[in-house]
Please model this.
Amino acid sequence: MYDRADKGSRPADLSPALYRAAFDGAPVGLAVFAPDGRTIRTANACLCRWLGYVPGDLDGRPIDQVIGREAFGEGSTEVKAGIRRWLRADGSSLDLRLTLSGADATETVAVVTLVDADDLVRAEQNRDALTAAGLGEWRWDLVTGQMVFSRRAAQILGYAPGRSVTWAGMRGQVDPEDAARIQAAVTDAIAQRRPYAFQTRFRRATDGAEIWIGARGEALLAADGTPVGIVGVVQDVTTRVEAREALAEREERLRVATTVADLGIFEWHVLDDRATWENERMFAIFGRRPEEGSIGKSTFLKEILHPEDRPVFRQAILRALREDTILHATGRIRRHDDGQWRTIDMAGRFERVRPGALPRRLIGVVADVTDRHLSEERRSLLIRELHHRVKNTLATVQAIVGSTARTATSIDSFHEAFVGRIKSLAHTHSVLTEATWQTASLRDLLASELMPYAETETETSPDLRIVLDGPPVDLPSEIAVPVGMAIHELTTNAAKYGALSTGRGRIAIAWKVEAGVLHLDWRESGGPTVAPPTRQGFGSRLLQRVLTTQVQAQITTDYAPEGFHLTLAAPLPERNPALNPLV
Model:
């Protein structure tokens, strides 16, 4: 190639020596291939240096010992231009760009240059990988506004490959608000010389179908640093966005469900003992504000959980870890804001990458069951109270039967007295069960027994036969039953032998409560002359035995001729708040 000046390969005034000097001193790799395309006739020092050879060692070497076989076309002996893998003298490889020029009937000149890593990534053989990943390449010329799309990018967006549309024409396929946001983001990224990325809805040009696309890009700069274009990739992310939205919807439904159920949601990350609280209810249960953050297991066990409940929780955690089962534990926690003790139920499951692997996190829920536990305790107490009352009632009925039988003079008198007393007992229990908190009004007990004997009362003619005077007093069940029975016996005796046995008789009952003691005064007048009884009947035994022993009442009776008089002083027991169903 150095003796063909007659063919115009070099000016006539330049010698072969100058050509050889330029060849050897070139800053790029140069090689001359033999006409058969299988042998390197000669290579310059630069190419030898890159490939680890002493200058001259590549001369006469077969090309396929220096360039990988993939550089040759299938069934061909001729090497092809492009980025090729060259084999170095030490057995390693190096990517170099091969450009073929100066080919004629006798020889081919090869120019070899180093390949930038970015150029290697963008090489033609990597385009299939981009396509397989669903990525299409695009280029935007900032000078002309022209958008250039690869085949995959054009397929995603619905345009023809190559130069097919300007940004102004493409902008109409994007929602106006998104278009303004995208343009602002791109402008800012170009100004700051940094990459950018965005997602947006896009109406495909071919059929108008709405899809989601994700795009990434960065500016191309001229030699003076001026942006002249943008290159990047685009991807159809519709499926991904729809899956993300579906997941968000499911999470929102879960949050709504747990909110309605008053459940707190949490994640505990095992390795770093870090907890994430997913909803407001979790913070409310523990009495913490979101800005105060959550707490890990160590803090929970050492500072929040009641000391007596810590072993139970530790055992539950260990059991769930060993057996890979649901964690369930109940214990008391001290709320952060008010210091109150609350009872919680915790349930969760450890998440593992694979069976038998160490767990990564615990996902679970927490419920404040304080009120439920109190309700269960109250229900148990009420059941025990009911059993106690039934036993007392049966004992009372048994006493009524025995006493009525001993004092009755005939079957008819027994029946009359027994039925009246049972009805009185039933009425007292009816008043008790109608009350929300198992109490009976003293005025109601008196009125139900005495009102049948009262005269009609009007505004101008008040009742002078029955007078009830006292404040509202609710009698607890344990005192209401015996007092109600006593009122029935007093009323029955007054109707048979006392003030109510004549039309002119009257009864005045007054009561008050002082220092937790009920004081009741029963006074009869206007009836027959009274004399002390000659024998003790059921009423007397009831007053003396039941009221004094069961109610701890102090009773005085006076059988004065003008009318029977009784006073009663009975301590009112305090109500147990646990028996109140409204608490």
In short: Confidence is low (pLDDT under 50) at residues 1-10, 458-462. The first strand starts at residue 29 and ends at 33. The radius of gyration is 52 Å. The chain has 16 helices and 23 strands.
